[in-house]
Structure formats: C-alpha cells, structure tokens
Amino acid sequence: MLRRTFLGAVAALALMPAVAMAQSAANKTFYWISHGSPTDPVWTYFLQGAEKFAADTGVKVNTSFHSNDVPSHQEAIRAAIAAGANGICTTSPGPGTLVDVVNEANRANIPVINFNTKDPAPAWRAYVGVDLKVVGRTWAQYLVDHKLVKKGDFVWMPLEVPGAGYGEEESAGADEVFKPLGITWEIQDASYDQAEAINRMTDYVTANRKKINAVIGLGDLVTGSVKRVWDQAGIAKGEIPVVGWGNSLDTTSEVSEGYVNAGMWQDPLATSYMCLSALMSEASGIPINFDIITGALYEADKAPFYAKIMGGK
Questions:
Q1: In which domain of life is the source organism classified (predicted)?
Q2: What single string gives the DSSP state of each residue in 191-250?
C-alpha cells in the first residue's frame, strides 16, 4: 500500500509540469499573418500547419490573410501589438515594408518571426522558410546536371505575380549558374488568376517555341498550369524540360506524369508549425536567433509522398 501511495505521489508530481505547461500554453495568443490570398492553394497548406500547432498545443492562434495589401498587413501587426500578443509570425508583403511595425513590436517586447520569404530589412527574431536564391540555383543546377540545357540555350521563366520580389531572387540565383555557361533567360509576367495565366503562358510558348529550351516556373500556380498549357499549345509531355515550385497537387500530378521534371517542396505546413514553435520558445524566454531553412527538390519517385501530405492519394 505504501509503495502504491508513493508511486501515485510520484506520478502526480510528474504530471504537475505537464499540467502547468498546458495551462501556460492555453494562456498564450499568437498571431499568424500572411500577405497571401486565402484562395491560393499553397496558402491553405501554410494555414493547416498553423491550425495543427494550435490544436496540438492549446495556444490560441489568430490567423489572417491580406492578399498583398501592405497597409492592411501593417495594420494587422499593429492590432496584434495593441492586443498584447505573445508573439507574431508574419510573412513580408514586400522588401522593407514592415520595418516600422516590427520595431514597434520589439519595443513592446513582442517577438516577431518572419516566415515564407526572407526580408532582411526588419529586425526579426528569426526566419523560417526557403532561401530563394538557393532555390533558384538548385533549379538551374538540376537542368545543367541532367544535361537538359547547354551553352547558348534559352530558359523561359513564367512568374505568377508580376514584379514579385521572390521571382527576382529566384532568377538571380539561377543566373549564378546560367551566366558562366552562356545560358540566357527571360521572366514573363503571367497572372495570379489561373485562367489568365494559362492564356498568357499559351500565347508565350506558341510565339517563342523555337527558342525555348527549358522552363523554370516561378510560382506554384504557373508550374501547376504546365499540363494545361502544353495541351492547348500542342506540346508533348517531356518535350520541354520543366522545373519549378511543387506545392500543389496539380504539380505533383505533372511530375508523376512527366510534364514537370522536378518540383520544389517548400514545406508549407512545417514552416508554419516551426515558426509558431519558435515563438513558443521565445515567449518562454529561450531566444532563437537563428534561421530555419526548408525546402526539398523532388522527382517522380517522391511525388506521391508530397501529394499525400497535401491530402491527395
């Protein structure tokens, strides 16, 4: 009996930190703020990561999308500061656009972590996500290593959001590989609307087919539209090598079928989850002060694995 009582006491003591931790988590409120659109398929995966974190930890996570509206995005951060948030995970709607509001959060001792696309201007606590220049270099090196492009070739780079900074970063990374080899390239503004993107891409490839040796899709929407464009333009799968973003079921299907050679998985669910986990550490007095870099290039053999993560078969 004494032994049983002792063990019961030990068990109760062991449970006390866990109970206290759960209570502490339940009293925290984090804000997850995205410049993206709620209708963009990849952002549904980022959101799922945030929702999973909230379900697992009991932390209240307030989420919002701002569809590249900078003033709205800035106001959302200020609202989080005014509400006394325990931490903020946010993307950047454009280079340098959040410097002032992040400074305001820091003065209020509210940790702010950047995720998805790195913006070096604000004074973040950390960054979680891909390195876009590394991504661009990886795509270009894949094409070179697999002998899909050679000296003097031309690479077409459709971009889903005209003028988007991430396209500039990715193409700059690719150019580090292409320039020494004399490979040229051009960014084409497609559209954030898939129907319009398909039309513009079809027109471009039809007009420039003879000079296009490979494609790099600067965005999930454009890479995920390749099969539809090829079908409209009368191009056979595999006729033109394609690499690009691979965070959609459309693209995993294209990789499996041979329309796209390789797709880049951005780890959207894990990115959100790790960003909020880093906030938990910061809010508990354990500073991060280091970046977490995500991303993996996959071919047909791994496409089903990533499709399953996104809810496909």
A1: Bacteria
A2: -SSHHHHHHHHHHHHHHHGGG--EEEEBSHHHHTTHHHHHHHHTPPTTSS-EEEE--SHH
The 3-state secondary structure of 57-116, one letter per residue: HCCEEEEEECCCCHHHHHHHHHHHHHCCCCEEEECCCCCCCCHHHHHHHHHCCCCEEEEE
Tokens of 224: 């995920």
Summarised one tens digit per residue, pLDDT across range 226-266 is: 999 999 999 999 999 999 999 999 999 999 999 999 999 99
Q: How confident is the model at residue 191, as a pLDDT?
A: 82
d(CA 80, CA 65): 14
CA distance 147 to 141: 10
Confidence of residue 27 (pLDDT cuts 50, 70, 90): confident
* Residue 19 in tokens: 């109970």
Query: What b/e string do you get for 185-224 counting C-beta neighbours within 10 Å, with b at 16 or more?
Result: bebbebbbebeebbbbbbebbeeeeeebbbbbbbbbbbbb
Of 207, 206, 223, 224, residue with least CA distance to 215? 223
Average pLDDT, the chain: 90
> What is the structure's pLDDT at 3?
33
Task: From 75, 80, 79, 245, select the one nearest 157 (Cα to Cα).
Answer: 245
Q: Which residues of 145-161 are buried (b: 16+ CB within 10 A; e: fewer)?
A: eeebbeeebbbbbbbbb
pLDDT tens sequence across 273-311: 999 999 999 999 999 989 999 999 999 999 999 999 998
Per the document, the length of the chain is 313
Q: What pLDDT does 41 receive?
A: 79
Q: Is the pTM of this model over 0.90?
A: no
Helix axes 165-178, 132-145, angle to 10 degrees: 40
